[in-house]
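Changelog excerpt

This revision adds worked examples to the README so contributors can see how folded entries look when concatenated. The first example is reproduced verbatim below.
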Amino acid sequence: MSASATAPQAFDARQFRDTLAQFATGVTIICARASERRFVGFTANSFNSVSLDPPLILWSLARDADCLSALESAQRYTVNVLAAEQVALAHRFSRPHEDRFAGVDYRLGWADAPLIAGCVAWFECRHHSQQVAGDHVLFVGEAVTGERAAGRGLVFHHGRFGTTVALPE
């Protein structure tokens, strides 16, 4: 089979989003301290591993996000990997809310940012690098600590939340 010499048809934003929706992703909440009395956090499914040595992770945030400046200046942050039972938290941290952390059970660790109770995994990261890419900023963090817990992770696929189920081998 040979490649076509003609340029492909335009790939609009809706087609791009619909195609991406076929890729199931995990759901996380990224958190950092914005000031002495305030935290920022948002739902992200752009989380991914980058390197084992050193242990690097990647996530992205829209350039027009309200919390962008706080996260760009944060030297440490947490990545909370949500459990299947935490859909309400995923919604809460993905929409405007006066205080996203009010009533949320969390503890502080090395990164001095929320480690949310009930998650299936947590990473505490040190800022490594960031890069503007289109309408987002890519953040690379070095995972300094991490934990995992029992449970099924929350996933996002084709515009809906779901969970993981192992297939028979």
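The second example, added in the same revision:
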Amino acid sequence: MKEVNNVKYFDILEIVELFSSGETEESIKNYFETKKLNGKKIDGEWHATKEDVEGLIEKVENVSIAFTDPQEIDLRNIELNKRILDIGGGGEGVIGQLKGSSVVAIDLRKSELEESFEAGDKESLKIIMDAKDLKFLDNTFDTVTAFFSLMYVPNNDHEQIFKEIYSVLIENGEFILWDLIIPKNTKKKRIYAIPIKIQIKGKKIVTGYGTRWNKEQNLEYFIDLARKVGFKISTQKLEEEYFFLRLKKN
């Protein structure tokens, strides 16, 4: 991403990652050259604003989408202890890629877990399971993680998931979550999404997470929920477009 005169621009590789329809560097370059995508050459390479990319996606994929500014998350030094349960661990399988065989990754969809294997998470134990009804014994896990997964869950299911997580954690175990700040939908877009670059073990994962824009959530919402269930807030960090929470079971 480049910033010129306080305007942020996506480069071609970043634009490719925002599409779900299999666009390539060549096809995006063609959109620029045929004027289907308004662009600006910076250092000799095509770039486009977030608004212009959103407009192109709406035309090509027939879906209205709003993107946050791209974010970067460095997980190389994140502390995750011993046996780890990763909620919604399919897709890129970020926590599985980070901690390998220490991780039990659950997801509702088999295809998401299969995708995580192809993405590089080849060591975690992958189980199809609903986070609202965890099948593990109480006091099983030292750590539970949720990396941009609760954004896909209806808000009225969050409390049950927090209670299930609390049960399967050992005493003083930790629930660690990263998630998207979702504001009120004033733009009347269907999807709200965040482009992210994630640094792990010398590898950079370029991806994005998008969900139906039919709800709101923020840091305060999850802090209130955590306290209601019984968690102690160890760390809270508010970034530009997302938040980080480290919670401890009392």
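Reviewer comment on example two: The domain at 2-63 is CATH 1.10.1660 (Multidrug-efflux Transporter Regulator; Chain: A; Domain 2). The chain has two domains: 2-63, 72-249.
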